[in-house]
């Protein structure tokens, strides 16, 4: 309490009480305006909301020590297609609510390239920024409504996205990302005032962006590594996250090697003519039934289409039943009644008109199958390449963390059957879900994780696959099912 | 230059080039938006505007390496009555322009107390903030117009004011400053975005406030110490700054003791009924002429009134000619035709009606003289008290730095004659001008001075004069001219 013998200023008294945290925090202007009134109202006692970011400890707010107001944070997985958000209590670490939405930038282009070109036009970057920021802002409101809390209680928003999405969220010109020599505006976007982007946070809220490694290797993967913990383990493990690109990291507590490459559109819905985003009525499981197969749909509803994981299941079954050959080509004799022609090209009837939910037959074209083969080959080659680069074998891997939508829904058995992922003991595969969101959530819990994210960024050796010649040779070998070298897939050969 | 083998991001490349400065600077959002375009426009070369404040190095802007745009700073001496501003080039340290204005808060109260009470009303603090900020903003525009530069080139504004004026500039509730136990909102207001207060700076500009020691000992004096350099000298010196309060610091490179006390209104114009702010036609010099005296005015114009320094000259002459006695009372017989009565009380005609510039006689009342005696007694007692506190004598002082308007215009001979300042070798007195403005100017030139200002603040032992009983006893002795103990003023006694 202030007295004549201890008449230091209100703010200095508060900061002195916080001196246990080491460095003296920076204080925002608005708090100077409120501190004297609030400290007197609360008998010179307060709970403090501190934020450590970018080397500077900041005192964001003070709360009634007896009150119920909380300090909350929001983790954002900023995907090209989808945005997933989670509201947490920063003290108890309890998840209060979650929400998912389409990335509103889709209205200006479903793929990254279109958006980057749009960002290069007058006002384009600002337009894209506004779209996504409004979306996230609505998400913040939704999260708070669901949890019955005030947006004033949200002090930190941690955003994990790939390099392009981070740039487009920030309203930065991103055109140099896609032109040789592929230069982002920044790989360390850091911490900013949330009010530059969002309205539905505390006025002193901060937004933190994950660092990137380069144009093709974004903060979402650093977030994933942070969550997987492979950078803390003695044993070597692998992390694979398949979205629009396949991103792979190999390493342990001593070293990390990362690479990213195009895995093809067949693995993510919305781009391929037949691949759908997972949803009610979508075929996500295909099971062998003798020489034929049966399908399962989400919500057990009449089938509407096939999603990525269903497509991989389907390809595995087609191969095991002989309906496609080792090159992925439809074998008319084995397909029997399922064989048809569309636009002059072979196709497979997955669900006939009678049992389909669309009113027409659900088919898979040879072109789609060819595309899947290229995708699976790319996936395997990426994994093979990174493992070979560092001189370890697949057998040396302690764990393979499979992240993302791909990881959550795919059946490793099917993926191994078509030679997409290595033929290892199934329990070495670990599904870690939306690791980008999970890493962003960790980030909300303190600067230890921020330092870890920076350390991961500084430690990763990035292998640029696009400029590697050997890649194409290995890619050719992987375009067979399961592979030109069957010894690599002993359990598949046995089947 | 970016290449495939060195494809780090634009901002990271820039920060890497700055790594010689030690810590990695924080970067403001708006610079992210511009960096890629500007670096390409300037062939990946740039001049950088860096700011070190509050423990965090910040990159504020980048400038064309071949262009003429400059980084400028503005020093502000934020007085209760007057605001003095100076525009400098941060690189060449050249002064480009200066301006002086009345503090626009005067419209809500000429004295600090009235303003502090006003600040405690609804919207009062905001109203006071707006007034002074608009004034300083206009000053910024004036300075830039005078120097032919753009306000966009102003990156730092350093503000040196007393504790109350700093609070009222920041729009902070200041009422606890004047109530026991005299608690400011903050003694370390630190660095903020200039845009919170001012419009006429670069959008990324920063404003820095000098730290305070306490309610009555403000940043203006810390600024003065910084400029005087007494904190760096081996020998003990004294710094005295008389404004509304008399502020005194005694010390050397090993220790600093400071105190502040009311010196009375007679020393600053505008408050006393006859004391005027220095300006054309104001009597600033009074010279003895046998048993009488003659006056000199600023601009040699017909006299309009007497300012503080002229008043001290006058009192000295009145004492030496016997027109006032040792108690400061007018002696009718010695005053002769200059003696008159006003409102039933004795007064002295300084300038008769015929030669005055006002159309009426210029007089000094006994009440004003009594007030001056109290002021000079307070001044001397403050100096005596602080010197006694630390156990040194006036004779031990290497220098007495006299700052402020008082210091600039006062004749030490006259001030010694009336016993206002100690009777020391005249060349130990050094006029250092507006030391608050000079210190603020130094502050613009780097964090070394910021650290020094913090160190000065941390090192000063503050002596609260108001609560010292001995003070009143010494004060009584000093209410005589020159003093009850004439041995303290040997050169005056000789005259």
Automatic annotation (TrEMBL), chains A, B:
<dbReference type="Pfam" id="PF17651">
    <property type="entry name" value="Raco_middle"/>
</dbReference>
<dbReference type="InterPro" id="IPR041414">
    <property type="entry name" value="Raco-like_middle"/>
</dbReference>
<feature type="domain" description="RACo linker region">
    <location>
        <begin position="2"/>
        <end position="62"/>
    </location>
</feature>
<dbReference type="Pfam" id="PF17650">
    <property type="entry name" value="RACo_linker"/>
</dbReference>
<protein>
    <recommendedName>
        <fullName>[Fe-S]-binding protein</fullName>
    </recommendedName>
</protein>
<feature type="domain" description="RACo C-terminal">
    <location>
        <begin position="235"/>
        <end position="492"/>
    </location>
</feature>
<dbReference type="InterPro" id="IPR042259">
    <property type="entry name" value="Raco-like_middle_sf"/>
</dbReference>
<feature type="domain" description="RACo-like middle region">
    <location>
        <begin position="72"/>
        <end position="233"/>
    </location>
</feature>
<dbReference type="InterPro" id="IPR040506">
    <property type="entry name" value="RACo_linker"/>
</dbReference>
<dbReference type="InterPro" id="IPR052911">
    <property type="entry name" value="Corrinoid_activation_enz"/>
</dbReference>
<dbReference type="Pfam" id="PF14574">
    <property type="entry name" value="RACo_C_ter"/>
</dbReference>
<dbReference type="InterPro" id="IPR027980">
    <property type="entry name" value="RACo_C"/>
</dbReference>
